[in-house]
Write a structure and sequence with these properties.
The protein has one domain: Elongation Factor Tu (Ef-tu), domain 3. Strand 6 and strand 7 form a beta hairpin. By secondary structure, the protein is mostly beta strands. The protein has a 6-stranded antiparallel beta sheet, covered by helices on one side. Strands 3-4 form a two-stranded antiparallel ribbon.
C-alpha cells in the first residue's frame, strides 16, 4: 500500500493505492562518490555519503479506478511536491508523470527528502 497526498490541507488531495509488489521498485539510494585515476597507478575515491533525495520510486497500480487516477492526476498537475508514504517510510517527492497502460497506472516519483525517522 502507498499513500499519496498534497503537502497542504486539501479535501480531495489524498489517495491510498494498492501497488503491485513484483512490478514496483524503491531501490536504495546510490552513493555519491567520485573515483579518479592517480599517476602512480592507484585510484583516489571521494565518498560524499548517501542521500534519500537521490532515490526514484516507481509504483505500478494494477486496475486503478477512475476516481483514484483522477486524484493522482490532480496531485501531479497542481502540486510541485507530494507526500509519499510506503513501506520504506514517508518522503517528499515529485510525481514525474503518471502513465496508464492496459488499466494499470505506473507512477514514477523523484524523491526530494525523507521525512520520517530512520
Amino acid at each position: 500500500m502507498i499513500s499519496l497526498s498534497a503537502p497542504t490541507v486539501d479535501a480531495i488531495g489524498a489517495v491510498i493505492l494498492k501497488e503491485s509488489i513484483g512490478k514496483s521498485s524503491s531501490p536504495e539510494p546510490p552513493a555519491r562518490f567520485s573515483k579518479s585515476k592517480c599517476l602512480n597507478g592507484t585510484v583516489s575515491v571521494t565518498h560524499s555519503g548517501v542521500v534519500d533525495g537521490d532515490r526514484t520510486f516507481s509504483f505500478v497500480i494494477p486496475q486503478i479506478s477512475e476516481a483514484e487516477y483522477t486524484v493522482v492526476k490532480r496531485l501531479h498537475r497542481n502540486y510541485t511536491s507530494v507526500i509519499v508514504a510506503c513501506s520504506e517510510g514517508v518522503f517528499a517527492g515529485v510525481i514525474e508523470q503518471p502513465v496508464m497502460k492496459a488499466g494499470d497506472c505506473t507512477i514514477k516519483i523523484e524523491i526530494t527528502e525523507k521525512i520520517s525517522a530512520d
